[in-house]
């Protein structure tokens, strides 16, 4: 599949996997910690952890020989998923919070004020929006991707 979103969802699109990554960012590393936090069946947790290791998002490290026990730590690829989790949390809080309010927030560590995450281009420092940025076909784009981008460009020119 040429689409980077589809390829990414193939690795982390199952919701347990995203919650495991969330917990890993909160410092959980051990099977029993993930199981207690998520209240997930052991066989399901084993599969999800194995998939995340196979996808290169987590690394499995032995911390005890007797009995054999492993921990799961974020890799560089896994740490690169952090902005996605932050964006998902902000979007979920904005659109799907309980009537009482969000269950968790990201706040400024110094002021305690809630953060309002946005997507910013590292090169220019500008917020990524439809006014200043657009999609283009990359070197691996197939005909379907090129057609989709051409359609978007045509729609953009009409406005």
Distance between the termini: 31 Å
Helix share, percent: 40-55%
- With strands numbered from the N-terminus, the spatial order across the biggest sheet is 1-2
- Overall, the morphology is globular
In DSSP terms, counting alpha (H) and pi (I) runs of 4 or more, how many helices? 7
What share of the residues does DSSP label as strand, in percent? 5-15%
**Low-confidence spans: pLDDT under 50, at least 5 residues?**
none
Oligomer, anyone? single chain
Largest sheet: 2 strands, antiparallel
Radius of gyration: 19 Å
Task: Indicate the structural class.
Answer: mainly alpha
Count of strand segments: 2
H/E series: HHHHEEHHH
Question: Mean pLDDT, as a whole number?
Answer: 93
List keywords for this structure.
single chain, 159 residues, 7 helices, 48% helix, 8% strand
Descriptive notes:
With 159 residues, this protein is mainly α. The chain is 48% helix and 8% strand. The chain has 7 helices and 2 strands; from the N terminus they run ααααββααα. The protein has helices at 4-12, 15-25, 31-38, 42-54, 76-79, 82-96, 143-158; strands at 58-64, 69-74. The model has no long low-confidence stretch (mean pLDDT 93).
Which secondary structure elements does this structure contain, and how are they paired or packed?
Layout: H1 4-12, H2 15-25, H3 31-38, H4 42-54, E1 58-64, E2 69-74, H5 76-79, H6 82-96, H7 143-158
Antiparallel strand pairs: 1-2
